[in-house]
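Quick start: what a row looks like.
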Amino acid sequence: MKIAVINFSGNTGKSMLTKNMLVPLLVGARRISVEDLSDPGGRSDATLTASMFPTLAAELNAFEEGRHFVLDIGASSAKEMIGHFTRLATTRSDIDVWMVPVTPVSKQCADTVTTVRRLIEIGVDPQRIVVVPNNITDVSQFELDFTRMGMAAAELGFRLCDHGVPHSKIYDMTRCAEESLFDIANDTTDFRQRLRGRDNAQEIGRRIVVRDMARDACIHLRSVFDAAVMGRVSGDTEVPEKV
């Protein structure tokens, strides 16, 4: 599967979702970061400027069937990358999912609609575009916060994911970590045993909190992944494994 994560607006969660959802859940996925100035950590298999993309496109066109890559496009490079995709029709058509994260912030919603319109204008199938609500602070306000996105989806024909990513401090707490939240959540270390040994109790207590928060976040991330990428509703209630 080939996924491009893009939005003309910054701070919508593009790299966060790439690092903590897409790469962990697409086994063996290659992460390619295009000039992302707000990268929250995690390893990229390749980092390049937008001007270098045509060279990379040749490699992507020959990418093996059954393997995954995620193109993490920084907001500062989004418009230039749209220009490349306008000219590179084959590479553009090979992208299975164009993911456009959005938060409830009014300007980001407006920029998101503009991003989607531009993708459609260059020939992207609207059904390959999925807008993913992120950083939701009040679930009861979900429909109200994203009313504009719902209206735009009805007009333009793109998919608006009905699962969103709730706000959590865990994303800031692990922002610079190379590990994804799934790595942290699946850590089987017996921290209670270490506490009994009085081995750096305060740090161990912090790691227990981080792991618990990561496990909670991963349940939501898996639901969003299933709905947005796999096109199915998840009934998982436990920490998900890789797919």
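That is the whole record. Residues 2-167 form a domain with the Rossmann fold fold (CATH 3.40.50.300). Residues 233-243 have pLDDT under 50 and may be disordered.
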